[in-house]
## 1
Amino acid sequence: MAELLHVERRSLGDSDLSVDEALAVLRQPEHFCLGARVGATLVGFLSCFETYSAAGPRLELDMLGVLPEHRNRGIATALIRAAVAHAHESGAAVARAAVRTDNAASLSAFLKSGLVVADEAALLIWDRADADAAGGSSGRAPHALGRHLVRLPSRPLLSATQATLLRGGEAVASALALEVATLAYRGCWIEELAGAAAVDRASLATLLGQAALQQELHEAGALAPLQQAATHAALLAQGWQETGRHYVLSWSA
């Protein structure tokens, strides 16, 4: 594990986990990590895990790193292909990755591995600093948060929270919230935001972000498709912080 973290810090620099903390993440049953060696030296890795999706188990191709001196040799592409093949054999229906739009090398590796660009989105984050700056207000009241747990019958460990924003007893927005643990953070992914009004969609995301922090998660994140400009603007207005633009890539069996 120390060797893997060494590669991560030289290639990505996103994780500050200790060896024991990283081991605890990778020992979770939904996780697996592939490595590439040259001789006895680990030169690349791909950390993956499965999540709930309506289509069935979804493989998240999460953290991909290759030492700088070993890049442009097909290592990243080989890791992605091996991970997708393993997940397919294990029953995953779909796979997904998010790649920064300015990371041409990573994008090329995913495209060569058979994934396709499904969307372009802004990654927005809600963390403690955002919560403090927003003063805990989502800017729209009165409202309540309704939640119920959904699971996959074939993978009972894979679950998500179906959430609704209620106003006067009426559901005005909905979303799916997934709690995840990665080699960089423990957080909540907010997906499938829907509702007639952008401010209600953003208010629901903010309530879920606040709930994530109350559960001692590090942050909440949402990928806001660029074509949904009103949702993007409403999230920013409520205190969410954009951290970059990403291509969302997908694969299906």
Note: Residues 136-141 have pLDDT under 50 and may be disordered.
## 2
Amino acid sequence: MKRITRLSLLCVAAASTACAGALTRPSLEPRQNHDAFLVLPGFGYGRAGERTFQALQPSLAAEGIDLYVADYLTRGGLASSREKLAQFIRVNRLDRYERLHVFAFLAGAWTANPLLDQQMPSNLASVVYDRSPFQERAPAIAADKLRVLAWLRFGSTVFDVARTPSPPLAAPHVRVGLLVESRPTSFIKGHVKAALAYGPFKFACTDLHQPHDDCGYVALSHDDLYVKFGDVWPELRAFIRTSRFTSAMNRTPPAGDALAPEAR
């Protein structure tokens, strides 16, 4: 009975995120004096996140930034997801912008970096990566502990991410920022033993093995970031313009264990 209940809940969750898709501009005319901002959501993207980006689109457009949220993750694995992402970039003619900026949630980095290494857009100016020492263990936990449920929900892509080390982007001309979440999600809290079994959490920017121009910490979980993206937009805007986050950004790694009982 417990297994059936968990499967039912998973199917409900799958249905609730099925409508979260691409957010694009319909016009394919040249966009003079506009930048393109491409968001690559991950496994946690759902309707709440979609509403967040829909609400942000007009204000970004007023700043001269066209927002795109790609629907690129497939059930067939990282290779097919990369093909779909390449098609999204091509169909939406993101090369017509003078400057292209990318914000990659976790699965976005796993998908995009090898693609960018092979097919680097000539107008790619900056990439900001969402990083989380907590949530980056979630695919491995799902693959090890919830194999059937993970397969039903995400297909082979989550297993590809679980067994593939994070691929760094090596492009000296592209400005790179790291936005590091310092709070665990409810999924990680619910699988504390499994999360801790992979060893200590390392939050130092140098431990994330991605060359970068700036790095900062936000007191958000992975789930929070989807619905509070507007709260971090001022930092992303600053990075797009200056290759640095603002002086208000917290650049001190979190102290203590956010998974300790007193912190949960």
Note: Residues 1-19 have pLDDT under 50 and may be disordered.
